[in-house]
Hints:
Layout: E1 9-17, H1 31-39, H2 47-52, E2 56-61, E3 65-73, H3 74-89, H4 96-115, H5 117-127, H6 140-144, H7 148-155, E4 164-171, H8 178-185, E5 211-216, H9 224-238, H10 244-251, E6 259-266, E7 269-276, H11 281-292, H12 294-297, H13 300-321, H14 325-332, H15 346-353, E8 361-365
Antiparallel strand pairs: 1-3, 1-4, 2-3, 5-7, 5-8, 6-7
Helix pairs in contact: 1-4, 4-5, 9-13, 9-15, 10-11
Amino acid sequence: MYKKNSIPMSSVSFAYLKGGSLTETNETAGTSHLMEHLICHSFDKIRDDLQKNGITVNAGTSEEYIVCHISGIDHRVGRMVDQWADTILNPNPVSQEVFENEKKTVLKELAMYVADPVSRVLRINSVRRHYGIDSPLGTVESINSFGYEQYLEKLEMFRSPDEGLIIGPTYYSDKLDINNIDAIQSFDRKNITVVNDSGMPMVTGQDTPQKVLLWTNKNMISDNRRSAAAKILINMLSSGLNSPMYQEIREKRGLCYVLQGVQRSYYQRNAAFIILSDAPDEAKKVMEEILSNIPKYITKERFDIVKEMSIVEEEKHNIYLYENLFDELRRDLGFVYDAETEGITFEEILEVAKSFDLSEFFFYQE
Length: 366
Ligand SMILES: [Zn+2]
C-alpha cells in the first residue's frame, strides 16, 4: 500500500503583457518568441539553484503574452521566487554571440514544428492551443533578419515592464497545468495594443527533414546501486541548462532544440538514452566527444547539484505515485531504484562512466 504524500506543489508565472506576436509586424514575425528565449538567459546565474531545488523552469509565447513559469514543491518555489522574479523583471542584455546562437536554436524549433505533421497538430493545435494559430513562431526570414541592435531596442520593453502580471502561486500538477492556462486566458485583453491583426503570415508546411540522434548505452546495468548512479550521471550530462550537453550542443553551437537524457529500467536491467531532435552530424561529434571524455565535463559541484535535484525529484515522484498504477506496479516489481540515490558518491559516478558504451548512435531521418 502506498500512502498519499501531501507535499504541496505550486507554480508561479509572470506574463509580459504586450509581449506577444500580435505586437509584431510581418517583418518582425516570430521575434517575440525569440525574445522569450533571450529573456530566459537573465536567470543564467541562478540556474544551478533552481535545479538544486528541483524547480521546473519554462516559458512560452502566445499572441498576446510572453509568460515565464517556475513550478515545484511549494516551499522550494517560495525559496527561489524572489530571485527569479528579480531576473525576469529586469533582464540583462546577452552578448552578440549568445544572441546569434539563440537565433539558431529558435530556427531549429521552428523547423521542428513545421516539418513534422504530427508535431504541427499535437503541439501547435493542442498543447499550444491557447496560442491560436502558430503565428508566434513567425517565419525563417523575419527571424534571420532580426539584428542585435533591434534586439537591444526591443529589450527595453521588457525591462521593468509597466504592464505585466504575476500569476500564482497556483496549485500545480505535473499532469496538466490547467490552472495556469485558465488564468492566462482570463486576462483582460483591453490593454493590449494590436499592431497587426490582419492575419500573420502563417507558417506553412515545408519540406524540412528532421534528423533525430539517439544514443543508447548497450551495456545494460543490472545492479541497483550502479543504476541509480547511472541515472545521476545521465542527468549530470544532459539535464538542466548548465549541463555540459545543453551548453555545448544547444547554447554554444545552436545545433538542436530538444535534448533529453533518460534512464529507463526494463525487467531489472537499466539502459541510458540521450536523444537530440533535428541534430546535424556535428551534434553527434560533440556528443561523442563528451561521452568519451566524461570526467572532463563533470565536476563534484555539478554532482552535488544533480544529486540534490534527484532527491527532490523522488520527493515529487512520491506525490504522484499512488495516482499512477503503472508506476506503482513498477515499484512493486522492483524496477525503480531511487532508494539508492542518497548514498551515491562522486567516485561511483566516475566508475559508472567507464561502463558507457559509445558504439550505439542512431540517426533517424524523417
Ligand atoms: Zn521556444
